[in-house]
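Hi there,

I know you've been waiting on this one. I reran it after we fixed the sequence typo, so this is the corrected version. Both the input and the resulting structure follow.
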Amino acid sequence: MNSATPYELAWRKKNCEMLDIELSAAERRAILRQHTTQFEEQQEQRALSAPNPDKDLMLDALYSARAELLASGLDTTRIDAAIAASNGGGRT
C-alpha cells in the first residue's frame, strides 16, 4: 500500500491548482485573442463601409464643374471619365 504523506498530498494539490490557473489563463488568452480578432474585423468592415468625406467632396466638385460645363454647352467627357473612375455610385 502506497500512502502519500500529508506533505506529498499538499505538493500534488498545489501542482494541480497551479495547472488549473495556467489552463484558466490560457483559456482567457484564447478568448481574448478571438474577441480581438473579431473586433478588428468589425472595425475593418466599418471602415470599408463608412462614407469617405474626402471622396464625397471631390465628387461634389466634379459634379458642380460638370453642371457648369453642361450649362455652357462644353464637353464634359474628361469629368465624366473622372467620375466613372472614382466609382461615384449612381449619381449622374
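Quick highlight: The chain has a mean pLDDT of 85.

Best,
R. S.
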